[in-house]
Amino acid sequence: MPLSYLGGRLAFAVGVVLLLLGSQPVVGYGPIPGLLALGYALAMLDVPAALERRTGRIAVAFVVFAALTATWMVLVLRAVELPFVNLIGGPGGGVSLLPPLAGIVTGLAYCCGLLLLLRTPAGPVLSGVLSPMGRMALTNYLSATVLFLVAGPLLGIDSTADLPQIVGLTIGIIVVQGLWSVWWLRSFRYGPAEWIWRCLTWGRRAPIRRAVEPAT
């Protein structure tokens, strides 16, 4: 990975740039390279390990991000004219950074909220459900994309205005993937996409089936 030659802070900066620029030409999928780069940079900076000791800061961040998200949703629902933050072009033109920034802030609010829930008595239950899905993150991401593309038109989803159908389909996919991930990992070490990625990375066929323990 090219980012492995950079330090954590520089990789983080590259991730932010990719995230903001990538969200402009390709709506929906454009931010993905930036998100992957940010995740790698945060891991290099040992942020995941530090989160275990920062419950108070996570709570503050959740309140801030949730408030910003709620404000953005109110402005969008009321169709308030929002100013452009131009990267290219003159007044009245260019591209706006506000929608992608709103998406990033909303995602951060979700992440902080989930981290707080994992610190409650419901944490072990959530971990039991989410852990198998996380081990098959790439497979679940790809399959969710296919399911949305196939089921979306059947449910009449034409735009983000079809919120009830989008929410219903999202919940349905999460439930199916939660059950599928548990079932799959009972027999296999990795998800299908994760296994293919390991084979390509290692340059050899990686073992995928779990070893069957002899009966005693």
What is shown here, in short?
The chain has helices at residues 8-22, 32-44, 47-51, 55-77, 98-117, 123-135, 137-154, 163-185, 192-202. The protein is mainly alpha-helical and 216 residues long.
Please characterize this protein's 3D structure.
This protein has 216 residues and is an all-alpha fold. The chain has a domain at 123-216. The chain is built from 9 helices and no strands. The longest helix is centred in the first third of the chain and has 23 residues, at 55-77. The protein starts with 7 loop residues before the first helix and ends in a 14-residue tail after the last helix.
Give me the secondary-structure topology:
Blueprint: H1 8-22, H2 32-44, H3 47-51, H4 55-77, H5 98-117, H6 123-135, H7 137-154, H8 163-185, H9 192-202
Order of helices and strands: HHHHHHHHH
Q: Which percent band covers the strand fraction?
A: under 5%
Protein structure class: mainly alpha
Shape: globular
Structural Rg: 20 Å
Structure summary, number of beta strands = 0
Characterize the main sheet. Answer: none
Helix content class: 55-70%
Q: What's the mean pLDDT score?
A: 79
Number of helices: 9
